[in-house]
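Input chain follows. Return structure tokens only.
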Amino acid sequence: MTWRLALTVVGDLPLGPPPTWAVLERDLLETLDKAWQVFSAQCTAPDGSLPFVDRGQLTSRDAGDDFYEAFFNWPTLYLLSGSADLLTAAKHHWNGVTAQLAELGRVEHEYEIGYDWFHQGEGNLFFYGLCLADPQDQRLVERAARFAELYTGSPACNYDADLNIIRAPHTGSGGPRWGLTDAEPSYGWDPVMQRYGLPIDWLGVDSVDQLKDPASARMMGEQMRDRMGRGDAVVNLAATSLVLNAYLMTGERSFADWVVRYTDGWWKRAAGNDGVLPDNVGLSGRVGEYLDGRWYGGNYGWSFPHGISSVGAAAVVAAQNAALLTGDRGYWQPTRRAFELVLDQASMQPLTNVVADWRTEVARRLGLDEDAETLLVPTRLVDGGWFDPLPPPVNLLTALWHGSREATDLECLNTLRATSGYDWAVTLPFRNKGEDGHEQPWLAYLAGAYPGYPTDALRTALSIVAHRLALIEADDSDPGEIPDSHYQKLNPVVTEALLQLCCGAPQVVYNGGLLQLAVRYWDAAERRPGLPTDVAALVFELDDTGLGIELVNLSLHGTREVVLQSGTFAQHLIESVRYDRRDGDYPGSPYVEFAPRVDTVTRTQPVDDRYLAVHLEPLSRVRLRLTVRLDQLAPTYSAPWDL
């Protein structure tokens, strides 16, 4: 039986000179489909693993995530329009890296033995992407359920169901991994970690330099073990993605219930703390149990090492997941309150107030001189008050607005754009680990203040791919001398601009989020995810009522059938579509030198579905305005033809 939707929109407006953005978008997609093959051929072993020899580079617990991160966005490229063999290659590399990590003593039963969820969340992005790309793969289904059960009731005992807490900051397939290291507890002076300051600042050690003393280092390590190495930590909220992924793969309702219940536990603690999420809970279920009553000071919490960026990321991820399952947009309020806590203290300051180790990077990402003034917020809290000023976390605030679609969250971003002290309508050529950081120009584009962003973003992305390929060609590193993060810096796949432009979406929250798309595409003829060959897409409007999308078919002679899905998980309801059709005599007479002016007629049609099919004539375009009701439908990973 031929699968088809009840309503198909026809795109038949003549394309004319192809828009630059559309040509660049298809060029980038085709370039990326070659670039990953170069990385696979030159940077990996035949078994899919990464060339690496541990000669002391790895700490006692770290490293599992870094190997997976070299491939984290490969499934995303496949979902956008990557070739079919990309999915096969991505699975091959996940298997190869997993076996490699088992040999390195980092993984048991295909999962991290035990580490914090700041890093577990990063490493799991690759696995989540594979599941989204191929939810029918029974091996992935089995893994998804088995991994989630580590937190919902397996013998690993990571979760205390009676108290609704994850029992330690470091957890995994080995169960709670008490403390923060397998080595003797000591936290001495380190040139890399000194930028973060003291892990605990109220123990009589007043400066990082005092940690050069072995006795002080030993005391600090023991205190960290006892105060930060047991009980629940707010970053554990990222575990909700692991369990939600299992629900979407299996349909097992208990997984969904766990996500909501665990999130509710933290949200209730926030309600008892003036709306602010605490960052630590003891094994008795009491906030501040090991920190002398402090609601701050937990592992990867408000005090150390990242403050709002780690707390905020975990809060965004949990809100995304709980709101998806319940349709309750109230889940965004504790997340919003966490950011308000620092934004209320924002002020114009010179970048010289930023810690020296970060200053150059921050200045370059904003396009400023290192002594320029810009808007800074304090990002961390200790007994002495708020400190560590940095620019507001626009990436996380964008994820908050994208998820909530609330006017107040967009107003916050618009206020930051007006008061930040730098130009948001500029695209700078950098690629960081999380492959984000270009939210500012994208938001300026959506606000109508940067119409050239699509072409600038795509050209920039192409230049970054070229640079990464040059780095690969020049790389002659000794596998026994490189850090475990080496191959992340060579990965030539870049998807941030494509997610923004094609899907109306920011980059995934890097510390453990699931991909959050305003719109997703399916190739109806090939029965696979992604835009069909020759088709380019541009989301030019996005608000709380829907979105505007332009689709272009660059093929000279072939029609294309594309299915639009509202939301990553088909959870939004498309109520109606408005678009223009050709109306009049086209192509006209061959005896007239100029093509005729094309008359159009605007049509509005009800949809009332999570999908919309679009038939594109050769060399044609169509602009659609979709009216959408958010979070109205049960989420699913399934393809349209599998429901």
